[in-house]
Design brief:
By secondary structure, the protein is mainly β. The protein is about 5% helix and about 55% strand. The chain is built from six helices and 45 strands. It has a 22-stranded antiparallel β-barrel. It has a five-stranded mixed sheet with strand order 13-16-17-14-15. The chain is elongated. The N and C termini lie far apart (about 115 Å).
């Protein structure tokens, strides 16, 4: 044992002595390999090196070193060699040359219409095989490393594809030519009509070609919503007049955003006119669900409509005259970079009505015996104004304003077995809004934008009812009610996009939104409610888009809202995935959480009448809406043929509903579940187009007042809806037709959940248009026939029930579109 100890001690002392040795290196123009061999032999240092490689280097040295490492550092300091120590062995090897730093090249530009220089928003651009989307103003930017040649393929709905090559540079101007046939003094060969940029190109997204909308049946003044109703997932059956119902969302859960301003809704009676003037529309995007973190404030869908900026080359004038409205629009350049647009619409006396045509009575009425159908009076007018321009550096700015008002009324005086029922109903609405925006370019790296918008809706309804007994000396029922409901929204946002690399783009934004509501209710001249509410919330989002190779694209984002009144933050994470295995096939999936802070709540009276009021959620026990969206889609697109399929599931919590009687009003909070599949197929050929869509949907709900814990069918639940449409181009004639079939929904769901018979919806529309010119004027003359077969349908949630006895009611329905010829004339200069 003692012997082993001495051996160990001797080894340790020897090692210390070797380490403490002074190493002398002496050489004159000697090869490096020989110097290292001497060090190895003289000082017992283990070395490993390429003898032939190190012989190339000659060294002259005469120095002392206290350790081998110091000697090696000195010998290699000016040589392309390096060393590492592994255990007790020193390894010598050539230095790794750093990869040369690739030079970065950037381009930026704006996509615009070649004819009027109108910017083209949300244009799809493929650059060297990778895809990006331009912003609302047509701006794009991109960066490459090592390659200074940019090969672009540019696609925009309704325009010819452009293939071009660009050298590095900023503020490029790229102009596209329309593929939609427009009449000029010289006859132009017709081009294929690009109806839709493949439904399913992104999760839940549809791009709508508004130029095609003028060719489908209608009087031309409601072409925006006429074409929206023909899309999969958008409810057409029931002819909803106030709100859009998309993917089973409830009223008020979907947002119509017109040029950055919230539209809360106007009446739109019988598809004759809509809240958006088609003359001022440039782009329509419908986000049915699963949208990314840059958008919010709704748990349903978002319809994003971009307005035109105005012709920057020449002044123009458009006039539409039809048998119900007149529509005027003018645009003019104030300079090469500044333009203005103004438009005005007004209804006037209907030149004819269905009653004047001696039409046959509708057969097979769906209405029960205790029902009457009324034809209300309807007056509408609205106006638009927009001032927009660009700076010398390419920045965009603008100010837009709009207002609209309508008056919907009817009067009945109906005899029945117990007496006479009378009702005098009137609803007046005023919608208004404005926005200022400034979009600044960041020298090819992105954009930053400032927005300030204000909008509001003022709605006043009066409903006077009475039911006199047969002897006229007593009232079975009487009602005198006046309700005023106002909502306003003020929002300011600062947002931006930064291109981090050719595969990464960062999006961010923040700001605040203030909503206020006012509700006043009077009954028999006695004020029952007079309430003003206001809520302010801070909103922000952060999102990154990146390409994981040439086939996989990911978008990951987070949206946050802080509500000051309840001191609570709502986090809404979202993710979108796109996989493109081939040029023609694409798969999409998305998941996200969504919140909504203003709600359109129904109030159901003891006679099962629905009345809707805007309220602020989070206050007065009204919960904030919370929803989750799951979507999965695929699309195939090749040579004018497109087919897509989209599936979705949504669960929404905090749906509010008031149940009232003569003495009390109780608030209930429920849950909604919606699931469905949209199928869409389209074919374009030689300027003609045809498409078919099929939607299967299940919308269920549960509220605490239900008799059991099972989910019941929602009021707007319709299982099947089929839509067919075609446009035939016989230049200068265009013929179009469409058909909508719906399996039907419950006409009016009662508070005790009595399931009523579902009534199918069916309607065929046809139209013919002739385009011609007279000198510099371009004209379109057309005739449409809505509901060609005069089929009787039920209007969604548009019924009033007036009691005629303790157990019976008289049902008052607002008429759906009957057989309606509509003539129109468009004149453009």
């Amino acid at each position: 044992m003692r012997r082993k100890y001495y051996i160990l001690l001797f080894s340790l002392i020897s090692t210390i002595n070797i380490s403490a040795q002074v190493i002398r290196v002496e050489a004159k123009d000697a090869p490096l390999n020989g110097i290292l061999i001497k060090i190895r032999d003289n000082y017992s240092v283990n070395l490993s090196f390429d003898n032939k490689e190190l012989a190339k280097y000659k060294i002259t040295v005469d120095k002392y070193f206290s350790a081998p490492d110091l000697a090696f550092d000195y010998l290699l300091k000016d040589l392309p060699l390096d060393y590492e120590k592994h255990g007790s062995v020193y390894l010598f090897f050539p230095k790794k040359e750093p990869l040369p730093k690739l030079k970065s090249y950037r381009i930026s530009g704006k996509i615009a219409d070649a004819e009027d220089m109108e910017s083209l928003p949300f244009t799809r651009i493929m650059i060297n095989g990778l895809g990006i989307i331009s912003d609302e103003y047509g701006n794009f930017n991109y960066e490459l490393k090592g390659d200074s040649l940019f090969q672009l393929k540019i696609f925009h709905l309704g325009y010819k594809q452009l293939d071009t090559t660009l050298n590095p540079g900023l503020n490029n101007k790229i102009y596209l030519n329309t593929s939609i046939f427009e009449l000029r003094e010289v006859i132009i060969k017709s081009e294929p009509i690009v109806f839709s940029e493949q439904t399913g190109s992104q999760s839940g997204l549809m791009r709508i070609n508004h130029k095609v909308a003028r060719l489908i049946p209608g009087n031309g003044d409601n072409s925006v919503f006429n074409i929206l109703r023909l899309q999969p997932g958008v409810l057409a059956a029931g002819e909803e007049s106030n709100q859009m119902i998309i993917w089973g969302s409830y009223e008020g859960q979907s947002l119509v955003n017109f040029d950055g301003v919230t539209i809360f809704g106007l009446k739109n009676y019988n598809d004759n006119i809509s809240a958006v003037n088609p003359y001022v529309v440039k782009d329509i995007r419908v986000h049915k669900g699963g949208f990314d973190a840059t958008m919010g404030e709704r748990v349903g869908a978002i319809v994003d409509i971009t307005a035109i900026d105005g012709d920057k080359k020449k002044a123009g004038f458009n006039l539409n005259i039809n048998n119900m409205t007149m529509n005027l629009m003018g645009e003019a350049p104030l300079s090469k970079k500044i333009s203005i647009v103004a438009a005005f619409r007004q209804t006037y006396y209907n030149l004819y009505s269905a009653d004047d045509l001696n039409l046959p009575q509708r057969s097979g009425s769906h209405m029960p015996d205790n029902s009457i159908v009324i034809k209300p009076d309807y007056i509408f007018r609205d106006g638009n104004f927009k001032f927009s321009g660009q700076t010398n550096y390419g920045d965009s700015y603008g100010l837009n304003m709009f207002w609209g008002q309508d008056n919907f009324s009817y009067y009945i005086d109906q005899a029945h077995t117990n007496g006479i029922v009378s009702q005098n109903f009137e609803e007046k609405s005023k919608q208004y809004g404005s926005r200022f925006q400034y979009n600044k370019l960041l020298k090819g790296r992105g954009t930053i934008e400032l927005n300030a918008a204000y909008s509001g809706l003022n709605k006043k309804t009066s409903d006077n009812q009475s039911n006199s007994g047969m002897n006229m000396n007593h009232n079975i029922h009487s009602k005198e009610e006046t309700v005023t409901n106002e909502i306003t929204e003020l929002k300011t946002t600062l947002s931006g996009k930064i291109r981090l690399s050719n595969k990464h783009e960062l999006e961010f934004g923040g700001g605040f939104i203030t909503n206020s509501t006012y509700l006043a209710e009077d009954s028999f001249a006695i004020n029952l409610t007079n309430r003003f509410e206001q809520s302010t919330r801070i909103q922000s989002y952060l999102q990154e888009r990146f390409a994981a190779g040439k086939f996989l694209y990911l978008t990951i984002g987070l949206r946050a809202n802080y509500v000051s009144e309840i001191q609570k933050t709502f986090l809404q994470p979202r993710i979108n995935i796109s996989f493109t295995p081939t040029e023609h096939l694409k798969f999409n999936a998305s998941w996200g959480k969504y919140n909504q802070f203003i709600v359109l709540n129904p109030i159901i009276d003891q006679y099962n009448n629905y009345r809707y009021q805007w309220m602020i959620s989070g206050l007065n026990q009204i919960p904030v809406l919370e929803s989750q969206h799951f979507t999965l889609a695929s699309v195939f697109n090749q040579k004018g043929f497109s087919v897509s399929i989209e599936g979705y599931y949504k669960e929404t919590k905090g749906i509010s509903r008031f149940i009232s009687n003569e003495t009390d009003r109780i608030l209930f909070s429920g849950i909604g579940k919606t699931m469905g599949i949209d199928f869409f197929m389209k074919q374009e050929y030689n300027g003609h187009t045809a498409w078919i869509s099929y939607s299967v949907t299940q919308a269920l709900e549960w509220f605490p007042y239900f008799q059991n814990s099972e989910f019941q069918s929602a009021l707007h639940n319709q299982r099947h809806e089929i839509k067919l449409a075609t446009i035939i181009n016989l230049q200068p004639f265009f013929i179009s037709a469409n058909y909508v079939y719906g399996s039907g929904f419950i006409p009016n769901a009662s508070t005790n959940n009595i399931i009523e018979k579902q009534i199918p919806y069916s309607r065929i529309d046809v139209a013919g248009i002739y385009r011609f010119s007279i000198k510099k004027a371009r004209l379109e003359a057309g005739i449409s026939i809505l509901n060609l077969l005069n089929t009787e349908n039920i209007k969604f949630s548009n019924i009033t029930q007036i009691p005629t006895s303790d157990t019976n009611t008289l049902n008052v329905y607002s008429e759906t579109v009957p057989f309606t010829p509509a003539i129109f004339l468009n004149i453009s200069f």
